[in-house]
Every structure is written in C-alpha cells, then in structure tokens.
C-alpha cells in the first residue's frame, strides 16, 4: 500500500498566498541584500518588479546598522570575499538582535569547504529562512554538495535533512527544484509551478532568496517562503507563454513578476 502524499498545511492556501502578495505590495518592504556580484542587479530588479524595495548594503561599516531597520535581510554566499564575509556576519548578528527576519542562501555549500564552514557558522544567528537547492541543503547538513551551485539531488531526496535542519535551527527551509519543497520541520508545502528554463538564467534562484526576505518582512516565515516561491514560479509559467529562449524569458519574467495579480497567483499556483 502506498503512503499518501501529504496535502499542504491548512494555513497555506491559494487565498493566503494571494493575501501575502497584497501585503507585499501594500507595504513595500525594504530588503537588504548581501549577495553575489553575478546577480546583484538582477536581484534588485526582481524585488522592484514584485513590489519590494532593494538595498544593496553589503559593507562591514554599514551592514549591521542597516539590518536593524530593514524589513528583511538576504545573506547569499555566491561570490564571497573577506570583506563581504565580515559584512554578512555583522548583518546576520544585527538582524538576530533586532528581530529582523533574514534569509540564508548557502550557495555551493558542501562543495566548497570555506563557504560551507561560513554558512554553518552563521547558523548560530538563527536565520528565519534557509533557501537552497537540494545539494546545498545536503551540504549545509553535513552531507555531500553538488557541482558548484548546481544540484545533483532532488528536493524529495533531502526532505528529511531539510526538516531536521528546520527543527534544529527553528527556521523554515525551502528546497528549490522541479517541485519546490518548503518546511518548518513539521509541515511541508509543495509547489509544482515553474519551468526548467529558470535554470538557464543566472540568478533566478538567488533572487528568490531576496524575494523570501521581502515576504518575511510582512508575513510569517512559512507563508513568506511559500508566497515567494509561488510568485516566482507562477510568473515563470506566464513568461513561458511568450518566451522564445532564456533571453526573452528573463525579460518576460520581470514583467510577469509585476503583472501577476493576487487573484492570478491564487488561480494558477499548484499546491
């Protein structure tokens, strides 16, 4: 006899996702992004298109103070330098002290020892959400990583690790993949929107971390991670209706992040 597939938590409904998007656009959360040089402009544009306000404050002198009044903070380890590592430490610590929600995106964790050690180190500052692909979540949990920033595992394969990571650190863990899995350690949300072409545009995953930080500034963490994922993937579905390849897809994705209404999000999301 097969095991029944759990349904989404009762609190994570299409209507709840739609309301989260309304709140994001009503409050325009200020998102501090300490992210990698490859995706900084793209991440800022994604946040603007969705309805949030980006602030790329990533130096040690300003990062801590800014994290105290930001709506949310993103820490992304994609292209780390000594100075940015220090800024990330300061921002994570300051966010924890101020009660500012923050997102850890441990790019290439498990594959590269220095950034793996850093990502494990900042877990002591209790991120609100951890977002990564399956191999990064495995690497952060002490398992094998992937091929650089590319995953060699599926979200289903690391769900147990993701749940344990969430329980241990009191956070939400969002695992990106063909079917996104989002968990608070007990509840699991699965979202099956999106298209494989998303992996052909640099920064879609990294910017999703910033989007989660924005939503976390206006709604609770499990809903924030779910709403960000739903918006990104539903917008991707809509973008594919006109895209001819990665270039036109990228432009169309930004357009659809702005054009997708709460009602469309509720209608098109596949929970």
Report on this model:
49% of the residues lie in helices and 13% in strands. The N terminus is likely disordered. An 8-stranded mixed beta sheet has the order 2-1-3-4-5-6-7-8, sandwiched between helices. Helix 4 links the parallel strand 3 and strand 4. It has 11 helices and 8 strands. By secondary structure, the protein is α/β, with parallel strands linked by helices. Pathway: Cofactor biosynthesis; thiamine diphosphate biosynthesis; 4-methyl-5-(2-phosphoethyl)-thiazole from 5-(2-hydroxyethyl)-4-methylthiazole: step 1/1. Its cofactor is Mg(2+). Keywords: ATP-binding, Kinase, Magnesium, Metal-binding, Nucleotide-binding, Thiamine biosynthesis, Transferase. InterPro entries: Hyethyz_kinase, Ribokinase-like.
Write a compact overview of the structure shown.
Substrate binds at residues 56, 203. The protein is α/β, with parallel strands linked by helices. The protein has helices at 14-27, 40-50, 60-69, 82-98, 113-122, 134-140, 159-169, 204-216, 221-239, 246-259, 262-268; strands at 30-34, 53-55, 72-76, 102-105, 129-133, 172-176, 180-183, 188-191.
Jot down its keywords.
8-stranded mixed beta sheet; alpha/beta; 8 strands; globular; 271 residues; single chain
Order of helices and strands: HEHEHEHEHEHHEEEHHHH
What are the segments in which pLDDT stays under 50 over at least 5 consecutive residues? 1-7
Given the structure, what is the number of helices?
11
Which percent range fits the helix content? 40-55%
The average pLDDT score comes to 93
Query: Strand content of the residues, in percent?
Result: 5-15%
Strands in their spatial order, largest beta sheet: 2-1-3-4-5-6-7-8
Q: Any idea what the shape is?
A: globular
Count all strands and give the number. Answer: 8
C-alpha-based Rg, rounded: 17 Å
Largest sheet: 8 strands, mixed
- Going by helix content, strand content and strand pairing, the class is alpha/beta
Distance between the termini: 24 Å
GO molecular function, one term: hydroxyethylthiazole kinase activity
Family: Belongs to the Thz kinase family.
Protein name: Hydroxyethylthiazole kinase
Pfam family, one: HK
């Amino acid at each position: 006899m097969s095991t029944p597939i759990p349904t989404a938590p009762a609190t994570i409904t299409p209507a709840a996702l739609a309301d989260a998007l309304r709140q994001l656009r009503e409050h325009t959360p200020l998102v501090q992004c300490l992210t990698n040089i490859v995706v900084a402009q793209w991440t800022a544009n994604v946040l603007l298109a969705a309805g949030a306000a980006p602030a790329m404050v990533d130096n040690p002198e300003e990062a801590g103070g800014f994290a105290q009044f930001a709506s949310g903070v993103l820490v992304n380890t994609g292209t780390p330098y000594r100075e940015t590592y220090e800024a990330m430490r300061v921002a994570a610590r300051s966010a924890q002290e101020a009660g500012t929600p923050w997102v850890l995106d441990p790019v290439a964790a498990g594959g590269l020892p220095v950034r793996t050690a850093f990502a494990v180190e900042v877990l002591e500052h209790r991120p609100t959400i951890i977002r990564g692909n399956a191999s990064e979540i495995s690497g952060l949990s002490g398992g094998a990583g992937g091929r650089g920033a590319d995953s060699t595992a599926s979200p289903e394969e690391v769900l147990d690790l993701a749940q344990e990571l969430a329980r241990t650190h009191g956070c939400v863990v969002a695992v990106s993949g063909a079917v996104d899995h989002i968990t608070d350690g007990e509840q699991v949300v699965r979202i099956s929107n999106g298209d494989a072409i998303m992996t052909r545009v640099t920064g879609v995953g990294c910017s999703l971390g910033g989007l989660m930080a924005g939503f976390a500034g206006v709604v609770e963490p499990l809903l924030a991670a779910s709403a960000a994922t739903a918006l990104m993937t539903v917008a991707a579905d809509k973008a594919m209706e006109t895209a001819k390849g990665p270039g036109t897809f990228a432009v169309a994705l930004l357009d659809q992040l702005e054009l997708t209404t709460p009602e469309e999000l509720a209608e098109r999301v596949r929970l």
